[in-house]
Amino acid sequence: MTTSPTDLRRSGLPALTLGALGVVYGDIGTSPLYAFKEAFSGTHSLALTEANVLAVLSMMFWAVTLIVSLKYVTVVLRFSNAGEGGILALLALAARLTRERPRLAWITAMLGILGASLFYGDSVLTPAISVLSAVEGVSVATPALGHWVVPIAIVILVVVKPF
Fold first, then answer.
1. Gap between the Cα atoms of 70 and 62, Å rounded
2. Among 51, 55, 15, 18, which Cα is nearest to 35's?
3. Which tens digit of pLDDT belongs to each residue from 88-102?
4. H helices of the chain, where?
5. Confidence band (pLDDT; 50, 70, 90) for 54?
6. Is the C-alpha dihedral spanning 18, 24, 26, 27 positive or negative?
7. Which residues are within 8 A (CB) of 95 and not within 5 positions of it... i.e. 6 or more apart?
8. 49: which residues sit within 8 A by CB, 6+ positions away?
9. Chain-wide mean pLDDT for the chain?
10. Which of 15, 26, 35, 96 is deepest in the core (most CB within 10 A)?
């Protein structure tokens, strides 16, 4: 389903802005997974009880379900540039809407460049954080192997990188 410029004008700039936030922060559906460990460590941590673990798991489940289904399915998937998606497609749609207003077009272009740079930064950080988080489980299971977490994560990233 493609979205015409007329449809975009009808939906307005607020909807386009919300869609841009969803595209830029696309991995927010997985971010609650990284927060799980932090809920039980630090100065304001929860006690490690069955009730608290289930409460945090419930929060993660509903955060992922609501954010992904509501934001992505109802908002972000509505924006399409000839079947293409992502921040650059969203920038192309916004550029069409602001063509007659040069100042707004410049601001839109700068926001698009900022969004693309956030996307590229995120694509560099997310794999490393994901692998490191997964390998940290080794230190939870066997605290004596805690000093091996970073070297193991580096080896995994180097081996998997070519793929």
1. 11
2. 55
3. 777 888 888 888 998
4. 5-24, 31-39, 50-66, 74, 87-97, 102-141, 149-160
5. very high
6. negative
7. 105, 108, 109, 112
8. none
9. 76
10. 26
